[in-house]
Amino acid sequence: MYRFDSLENTAMIIGTLEKADNKEELDDYYSGALEEGVVSLLYGVQDIYVNLVDSLQNVCSYAIQDDYAQWTAKKAEGGKLLLIDEADYDTQHIFFDDGINDSPNSSVDVRDLITGESMSYKRAINKFVVRVESDKALLENDYFVKKIEECERRRSEEIENMEKGLPSEEEQVHVAKVDEWAVLQQLTTNDYLSRTVLPVVYQGMKEIDIERPADPVKAFAFFLLRNQHLVKLPEKRVEEKKVEPKSGPEASGELPMEEKKAENTEAEVKVKANTKVDAAGGDKVLNAMIKLASRPGSIDETTKKEEKKGSAKKEDKKPETKKQEAKKEQKKK
Questions:
Q1: Which fold has domain 180-230?
Q2: Alpha carbon distance 198, 196 (integer Å)
Q3: What is the spatial distance between Cα 29 and Cα 39, in angstroms, rounded to a whole number?
Q4: CA distance 115 to 110
Q5: 300-329: per-residue pLDDT in tens?
Q6: Where are the domains of the chain?
């Protein structure tokens, strides 16, 4: 098989293992063998795939030599080609190789036959390709049998899901989970009742019509209670409140600006209150000093007494001076 940059130009020579030195001139290189009908040359992946499928109907084995030169040059596009027709439910191709991996260097290039697009590793592994574990393959006699059974089981599940219209495993990863309860609440009245109660109601009405009980309403109510499990409703999601990590001043232990202002205001009030208390205390001290100054034996009291004595002496001296003057005047006379 010869690989080119374009998948459509992929070529396959059947009937010989002889390789051309220049794959750009395949027709010229194999011209003699082609005329003799010994070999046949196929171009395009669709023709190659059809030939492989038809050939395997008549033979039990088929050997293909890969284009190693192309793989070493462009590993992402030159691996061993494995074509998959996902619309063919009767045929399953399984490729065993120890070089299969989820990287551009994988030894196998899995392609969709119709679109030509590469198939992801996750979708192809253990369904169309198997990464061989050499040690287990040597030690376990049924290693390959088990792997084939696993691939067939996964392919059968995929086909079943496709027929039911369910998304594939790869698509399910990208499909967002739908809140079925919310969808139920958005239904119209008829659709909502048909989904929630009518299935049981209809059965109950048939039961009442058949039995014709003495108390139909009561019997109908008991029927609904006994068979309410027949209605399967989606669970209502309870949204958990996420505790967001604190950021800003709160994360560092600092108070927000509003709380800081409030705290500062309280501090100012306390300071003013303390100032008033101190002022009141100062008045008390002043009053005490006044009382202390006015008590007997105090410095101020002693000073006052001495001033009174001095004024009394002055008053006493004044009368004596007048007498003396009167005596002097008498003596003069």
A1: cAMP-dependent Protein Kinase, Chain A (1.20.890)
A2: 6
A3: 12
A4: 12
A5: 454 555 555 555 554 454 455 666 666 667
A6: 1-65, 85-175, 180-230, 267-313
